[in-house]
Amino acid sequence: MTHTFNQAPHFRALFRDTPTRSVDVGGTAFVYRELGPRTGVPVILLNHLGAQLDNFDPRIVDGLAATRWVITVDNRGIGASGGKTPSTIPEMARDAVAFIRALGIEEVDLFGFSLGGFVAQDIVLTEPRLVRKLILAGTGPAGGEGIDKVTPLTIVDMIKGWLTFRDPKYYLFFTRTPNGRRAANAFLDRLKERRTNRDKAISLRALSAQFKAIKAYGLQAPQDLSAIRIPTLVANGDQDRMVPSSNTYDLARRIPRAHLVIYPDAGHGGVFQNYTDFVPKAVSFLEA
């Protein structure tokens, strides 16, 4: 399956019903889903550690796609995309850029969540003319506080999830308050809304490569984020355990004129917990 631009637009399609497409990127098939009006600058969504297409929050995707062209993608080796998952953030960024160019797109808005936010920063720093606006959620800068500890933290909560018959994201993304628990259950229910043609689960090999990339990113020297000259929205919960919330404040301080949104009593998945507030903020930011 290859990408074409002459298909009938799915203006009212929901993410749960959106077909999975494929495009050849230098000999490797990358799978993606797109929805919303196919006009203007598309928003490319770059996802978190261990995530494939079915892990994008449908409320956020549908909310953006009500007015914007939205493209979600499995990077190399993730889900049903072919190839071997890179073990560095710069390689992941190059793959994402190659995917965008394979679609024939010359300018994008980037929305990077968690690991996707690391990749998004690298894209903006290396390909500044490609990106018009940037949204960074639940993420941090290279060398940021606690980022090199993501692997042990995640493995502990994966074991906890296995022992309690829960998705690890229940523990990793949300606070343990009543509010956080309710939000976790609602979010995990939303991820099950797609009933057919679901994506392939991420492989242990791919997950291991992502862990390696994140640890290296957490240990590397800080990047000059003052070079990011495009409008940037930075968002997180105030209780992020995975990528400590201090990193969100650091990003907002170091990226010129960045707009900061912090949600109280919310963790790594703060934008999922507060999607009713976040989606309108994101849309108005992108359309301003």
From TrEMBL:
Gene3D superfamilies, per database record: alpha/beta hydrolase (3.40.50.1820)
Entry superkingdom: Bacteria
Pfam families in UniProt: Abhydrolase_1
Keyword Phosphoprotein attributed: no
Keywords annotated in UniProt: Hydrolase
GO terms assigned for molecular function: hydrolase activity
Domain annotation AB hydrolase-1: ranges: 42-274
Name by which UniProt lists this protein: Alpha/beta hydrolase
